[in-house]
Structures are given as C-alpha cells and as structure tokens.
Amino acid sequence: FDRPPSSMRKIVLATNIAESSITIDDVVYVVDCGKAKETSYDALNKLACLLPSWISKASAHQRRGRAGRVQPGVCYRLYPRMIYDAMAQYQLPEILRTPLQELCLNIKSLQLGGIGSFLAKALQPPDPLSVQ
C-alpha cells in the first residue's frame, strides 16, 4: 500500500475483512454500501450459500473507523438513515445462522470429543436441538 504521487488519489477496494484486519494510514475517505456477503442457509435447496445482506451497526462503525486514522477523514454511507436504524447492533455469529453438518463432521473427524459438549464451549453456542 505505497503512497501515491501527490497528483493521484489511491483507491482501495476491500471486502468486510478490512473492517478490522488492516490499517492503511493514508485513507481519508470511506464509501460504505452497507452490504456484505454472508453465509446463510437456503432451506428450499437445502444448502448453504453466500447472499448479500445488510451489515450490523458495529460493522458500519468499523468501516467508518478506517478513515481518519492519521488525518481527518470522511465516511460516505450509501444507504438511508432508516436502514442504519434498522440494522442489528451486532452480526449474528455464523455458528448460529448456518447448518452445522460440516462443522459436526470436522469435530468428529478431528476426535475433539462429543460434538454437543464441544460446541457448548463456544462463546455463543448453537441451540442443542440444532446440533442433534
């Protein structure tokens, strides 16, 4: 992420991983579309898929925080205030919104103990009925 010549503006396109994983010192402007692709369950086709969905308020705050680390910055949000107001405070963890079959098979194949007891140790464990 080298600094561009003074006659040029650097543009960085980023996924939601940039919300908290990287810092680019010279970012002055952030353009936030308010969307991210999330893994969710398609009950009709019985499979997990990536679908665009609205981010959480916490994600919006993180995105805004990418600008202005070293100098004043601006965040342009491309969604209305009523969408922001309707956003969840935090994103629901993936373990609570996707099917657990693959995870359960991995736990079993790695011999990490009982699936239910292993998943019960998660910060936000899934419903025991989802595990069975």
From TrEMBL:
It is an enzyme of class 3 (hydrolase). Pfam families: Helicase_C. It catalyses: ATP + H2O = ADP + phosphate + H(+). One of its GO terms (cellular component) is nucleus. Its EC number is 3.6.4.13. One of its GO terms (molecular function) is RNA binding. The lineage of its organism: Eukaryota, Viridiplantae, Streptophyta, Embryophyta, Tracheophyta. Residues 1-111 form the Helicase C-terminal domain. This is RNA helicase. Keywords: ATP-binding, Helicase, Hydrolase, Nucleotide-binding. PROSITE patterns: HELICASE_CTER (PS51194).
